[in-house]
Give the backbone structure.
Amino acid sequence: MPSAISAPGRPASHARLVVPVLAFCGMVVAVMQTLVVPLLPHVPALTGASPGAAGWLVTITLLTGAVFTPVLGRVGDMYGKRRVLLASLGVLTAGSVLCAVSSDIGVLITGRALQGAALAVIPLGISIIRDELPADRVLPSIALMSSTLGIGAAIGLPVAAVVMENFDWHTMFWASAALGLIDLLLVLRIVPESPVRSPGRFDLPGTLGLTGLLVGLLLAITRGADWGWTSGRTLGLFGASVLLGLFWGRYELRTRSPMVDLRVSARPAVLLTNVAALLIGFAFYANSLVTGQMVQEPTSTGYGLGASIVVSGLCLLPGGLAMVALSPVSARISAAYGPRTALALASVVMAVGYVVRFYTSHSLWLIVAGATVVSSGTAIAYSALPALVMRAVPVGETAAANGLNTLMRSVGQACCSAVVAAVLAHLTFTAGGRTAPTLHAYLLIFLIAGGAALAALVATLFLPSDRPRGTEAREGTVAVSASVTAARESA
């Protein structure tokens, strides 16, 4: 059967460009997640906003990404993945333009909210790949698409730092808008619409319930350190999230076409994969958060290297390049031994990376080496997670299920951000006339992140065993081919 990718009206030569175009879209979206991190310390001076308001430039992106990723994944499954992909890229471009034309903190937060909503591009791209490509290309292509979440984050920090050092800070948002527009044109020209659809009606009450649950939970996690973990606002949000979650779960189990199929999500193969995704997201984000700050600490601390913002950003670049190189390797590991084995290996590599970081915190090159080892493990993990999800869910729920898995990574990153902020704020000393985190604070973070990687290993070991080589690919080919054929016949 010819690949579904050679859609009528599109040259067959476009087929080989679909994966690069989708991967480029994923990288652009991932860059948006970390773009403002080097800018944050300067936002109060540039905009007149308070440090608390400046923090919302990161928080709001996390919130909208968490909410829209599973929702748009479900919408894509039901109404067309390419259509929703284009809408997401349009929202990203609009958000970038808003940030580029204003220095008002309210406008900037609104623009960042729109940028965060585009995180759904990654699970949508994974689902398009599963629907459109022949079986022998699915695993390596999905590995690359999934890894863009880490690759973009690693590349975004040094690029943003270079722009901050040499240009007006609005430039990086104009560049974001241009990249978003290029993405839109490439998708319109190259990427076909998948005929695979999930039946049913859109679950508006379930969507609103999930939105309230995620906003309450993530607000409490990300702002708890500023508000106080025992404050009424933080505890109230946690309590409200629990209650809303109970009512939402009961409703989702009773509705015919749920926003999230909790029965499928409760299967061990799906549940444990999502738990592992949360823990991997935690372990990955610690590496990104503390590396730059650690090397920028002044030499008066006794451990800091006094590096510039550009040098600190470049410390993560080798890790980003390693992720590009290792995504096809991860696909081969998954194809030969199964994605469960690949994820277990990734967890071990990440834990080893944090052991290296624990004992080599005084040398720039060894810090870079340790960070690169962690990124290498992340590349293998991010490539294996979608393969584990896809073998456990119906083909018509691919985008929604991968959206939920991407959401779990985001929740892990939010938890990591809260833990890192708490540790660095409480383990401090005075050095050179300023308050700085102690070396033990950073070492504790490495221990916690390494522990998260080992916990991901434990969750992985409890997953159902990998099938014999070739079984998964054959079953996936039959399922996708049958779905595409049925969709075309009904069109």
In short: The CA atoms of residues 87 and 163 lie 28 Å apart. Residues 135-166 form the longest helix (32 residues).
